[in-house]
Design goal:
The complex is a heterodimer.
Chain A: H1 7-13, E1 16-18, E2 25-28, E3 31-34, H2 40-49, E4 59-62, H3 79-95, E5 98-100, H4 110-116, E6 125-128, E7 142-145, H5 148-157, E8 159-162, E9 166-173, H6 182-193, E10 201-206, H7 208-211, H8 215-223, E11 232-234, H9 239-245, H10 254-265, E12 277-282, E13 289-291, E14 299-301, H11 315-328, E15 343-346, H12 354-364, E16 374-377, H13 382-390, H14 393-400, E17 403-404, E18 425-428, E19 443-446, H15 449-458
Parallel strand pairs in A: 3-4, 3-6, 4-5, 6-7, 9-10, 9-12, 10-11, 15-16, 15-18, 16-17, 18-19
Antiparallel strand pairs in A: 1-2, 2-8, 13-14
Helix pairs in contact in A: 2-5, 6-8, 12-14, 12-15
Chain B: E1 2-3, H1 10-13, E2 53-56, H2 68-76, E3 80-83, H3 88-96, E4 100-103, H4 106-118, E5 124-127, E6 132-135, E7 140-142, H5 147-155, H6 159-164, H7 167-177, H8 188-196
Parallel strand pairs in B: 1-2, 2-3, 3-4
Antiparallel strand pairs in B: 5-6, 6-7
The chains are: A alpha/beta, B alpha/beta.
């Protein structure tokens, strides 16, 4: 018997092409996801060097970061964005890459469509020029974000030189309290370990609370691994994973399905496998969270107050706290629930999947958006949008005064026209509350979809655990 | 140039509106775009004009994978960033662009920030060959760096070229690995079913 191995080690070892002495290992990449923003310089690099794209069949492209989310979006008014999208189209033609373009029924945020179409599979190595590639780890894949030089490297060689990261097992044990979602699990972890708490590690999320999550929830948790500094987060595949994958467009079919599942079952970490670091979090300690500052680690339960910089652990943290409070225009000691908002954004690769929209719609049903609030829902993909419309969720949102938009990254990073005005305060289901992230001078508070929906209705942060649901039956 | 802030994210280094360009160069004037609108921001201070070394707080370069952050620092003229720690993806991106990241203990970084903020014509010297940092005021420290990265930086090696040395191993691996349909993006069985749909 060989030594017990972790999920990460199994995936890592099965993708080693070469281990040259005194150099990083050469890791084979199964799936390369491409979007318009981080790829043009990489394609140009291939051209300049006279190199071909080694494996177009292991490459998939879509447009998500720049695209408008308004209904008539085939003509893009922003000339620079339009040129970037046209460049991707031409590159996909020139190098033979399948592109899910704006009008495709499969277009969407790259980290939503990969799993939804069945490209993402357990045991794969997956990269993309986007830090939230960690999302795909929810399936037991080793998935991480890369820069544009690395994008070009994968295009040319289907490999990446990589130093072996350390492993960090985070177990969330017990039953999640009502109103505490996958987003709150992610924010609760980051609040505990900090935004550099997992730098240099691959996280494996485990424990009964993680096992109880749907695939959508698992993707939310893995998505935010990078916000804790980890390049990748992983969850061992199980029956929930297989049920999600079965019948997807690019899942194995017929006789191959059972064989694939039996291979995927071997991936779970062996009993007794060793990790470099471990942390156990009792689920009962988690609450619905709201970030108050300009880093995802600046987070407290909704029932608490804005913290005092004087209580910071170090001088550097105290200065960062003070800068954050100044930018956010908040005072220590103020109750989170007394903070009023101007905007609500439900969307992003963190929280734009069908389950996210269902949970938000359940809160919204029977209510109307507060008169001082502008709220929008941006589904993660055309498929999510179509599914939501089949379920009537769009009616729930529209009737309540939400805008119902076309899919894209949208106001998560505001590369398209969806941005905050200076000084506007937003309850957002996205992943980053950095200064100016949603628009210069805009103030972002990260929350779950249910918490965002509740804030949209009341006009201020509201503990969703006390929410009076009006029309549960419409979403049965 | 000193920048006494922790957790500087890549959105601050280069905001999103500049990521729509399709070029690799020309980002220098947009470095720290939002912060530099403030005339008191360090980059606007006469003392720091022409600075080639940035000294800053922990977890520098966290957040987005945008390589534009490394390009912007390079284009502005920075050759070295010194901090107590760096984010992973930024670390890779810097290495690919010849931008040297030097990790020093927090108390050393604080001392260097203090000196760079208060001493006119302050000079730091960073030697990659000797992995050593010193100034003219008695500061001296060694730093550790991955030997392979150091070698690549010193020799200016092309990463893709290095990988292509292993083409034979890659061809052999790939031939075998392609049979593992359970980790293939488009397995044949799926493609067949889709074609019939």
């Amino acid at each position: 018997m060989s030594a017990p191995k972790t999920l990460f080690e199994k995936v890592w070892e099965s993708h080693l092409v070469a281990e040259p002495a005194n150099e990083p290992a050469l890791l084979y990449i199964d799936l390369h996801l491409v979007h318009e923003v981080t790829s043009p310089q990489a394609f140009e690099g291939l051209r300049l060097a006279g190199r071909r794209l080694r494996r177009p069949d292991r490459t998939v492209a879509t447009v998500d970061h720049n695209v408008p989310t308004t209904p008539n979006r085939l003509v893009i008014e922003d000339a620079i964005a339009a040129k970037q999208i046209d460049t991707l189209r031409q590159n996909c033609v020139d190098f033979g890459v399948e592109l899910y373009d704006i009008q495709s029924p499969n277009q969407g945020i790259v980290h939503v469509i990969g799993p939804e179409l069945g490209f993402t599979k357990p045991g794969m190595t997956i990269v993309c020029g986007d830090s939230h590639t960690s999302t795909h780890g929810a399936f037991g894949a080793l998935a991480f974000g890369i820069g544009t030089s690395e994008v070009e490297h994968v295009m040319a060689t289907q490999c990446l030189p990589q130093s072996k990261p350390r492993t960090f097992r985070i177990a969330v044990e017990g039953e999640l309290p009502d109103g505490v979602t996958a987003k709150d699990v992610a924010l609760g972890i980051i609040g505990r370990i900090g935004t550099d708490g997992a730098t240099g590690y691959v996280i494996e999320y485990a424990g009964s609370a993680i096992r109880s999550l749907s695939m959508e929830g698992r993707m939310t948790v893995c998505n935010m691994s990078i916000e804790a500094g980890a390049r990748a987060g992983m969850i061992a595949p199980d029956e929930t994973t297989f049920a999600y994958l079965k019948g997807r467009t690019f899942s194995p079919q017929s006789a191959e399905w059972d064989e694939a599942v039996s291979e995927w079952r071997k991936l779970a970490s062996d009993p007794g496998a060793k990790y470099d670091r471990e942390l156990v979090i009792p689920a009962i300690e988690l609450a619905p969270y709201v970030t108050w500052g300009t880093s995802p680690g600046m987070v407290v339960p909704v029932t608490e107050v804005i913290p005092d910089p004087a209580d910071a652990k170090s001088d550097a943290d105290r200065r960062h706290f003070e800068q954050a409070l100044k930018y956010m225009d908040l005072k220590p000691g103020v109750s989170i629930e007394d903070v009023t908002i101007d905007r609500v954004f439900i969307g992003s690769c963190t929280n734009s999947r069908i389950e996210d929209l269902r949970s938000a719609a359940k809160v919204v049903a029977g209510y109307h958006v507060h008169s001082h609030v502008r709220a929008m829902v941006v589904p993660g993909s055309q498929q999510v949008k179509a599914q939501a419309e089949r379920e009537g969720l769009d009616h729930v949102f529209r009737a309540a005064g939400f805008e119902w938009r076309e899919p894209g990254c949208s106001m998560c990073l505001g590369m398209n026209p969806d941005i905050l005005a200076p000084g506007e305060r937003c309850a957002s289901t996205s992943n980053r509350n950095f200064e100016g992230r949603q628009g210069r001078g805009g103030r972002t508070h990260l929350v779950s979809p249910m918490m965002a929906a509740a804030a949209a209705i009341t006009g201020h942060f509201t503990d969703v655990r006390t929410w009076e649901f009006k029309k549960e039956e419409v979403l049965a | 140039m000193p920048l006494n802030r922790a957790n500087i994210d890549t959105d601050q280094i280069i905001p999103k509106q500049f990521l729509k360009r399709i070029e690799r160069t020309g980002y220098g004037d947009f470095l720290f775009h939002d912060w530099r609108q403030d005339p008191d921001f360090e980059i606007n201070h006469p003392r720091h004009q022409g600075a080639e070394i940035l000294v800053t707080g922990k977890n520098f370069g966290c957040g987005s994978s945008r390589e534009h952050a490394a390009w912007a620092l390079n284009d502005h003229g920075f050759r070295v960033v010194i901090a107590p720690s760096f984010a992973d993806i930024f670390h890779s991106n810097a290495g690919k662009n010849g931008l040297l990241l030097v990790t020093l203990p927090e108390e050393h970084v604080e001392l260097l920030i203090e000196r760079a903020s208060t001493i006119d014509d302050y000079h730091l010297t960073v030697s990659l060959e000797d992995h050593h940092v010193h100034d003219d005021h008695g500061f001296s420290a060694t730093f550790s760096i991955d030997p392979f990265l150091r070698y690549c930086l010193l020799e200016g090696l092309d990463d893709i070229g290095l990988t292509l040395r292993h083409t034979d191993a890659l061809d052999t691996f790939e031939k075998q690995h392609d049979k593992a349909f359970w980790v293939t993006p488009r397995p044949e069985s799926a493609a067949t079913e889709t074609a019939h749909a």
